[in-house]
Amino acid sequence: MTTVRANIYAVADRAGVSIATVSRVQRGIGPVSAETRERVLRAIEELRYTPSGSGRALANQRAGAMGIVFPDLSGPYYSEVILGVEEEMVAAGQSLFILGTHGRDRCAELVLDLMSRVDGLIIMGRTVSDEVVRALEGGRVPLALLARPPVDGIPSVRAESLRPAIELTEHLLAHGHERLAFIGDPASSSDAEERWRGFAQALGDRAGEPFSAAFGEAEGRLAATRALATGATALLCASDELALGAYRAARARRLRIPEDIAITGWDDIQLARFVSPALTTVRQPMRELGVATARLLFERIAGAEPAATVLASDVVIRASCGCEPLSDEEEESHQ
Amino acid sequence: MTTVRANIYAVADRAGVSIATVSRVQRGIGPVSAETRERVLRAIEELRYTPSGSGRALANQRAGAMGIVFPDLSGPYYSEVILGVEEEMVAAGQSLFILGTHGRDRCAELVLDLMSRVDGLIIMGRTVSDEVVRALEGGRVPLALLARPPVDGIPSVRAESLRPAIELTEHLLAHGHERLAFIGDPASSSDAEERWRGFAQALGDRAGEPFSAAFGEAEGRLAATRALATGATALLCASDELALGAYRAARARRLRIPEDIAITGWDDIQLARFVSPALTTVRQPMRELGVATARLLFERIAGAEPAATVLASDVVIRASCGCEPLSDEEEESHQ
DNA sequence: TTGTAAGCGTTATCAT
DNA sequence: ATGATAACGCTTACAA
Question: What is the pTM of this model?
Answer without folding.
Answer: 0.94
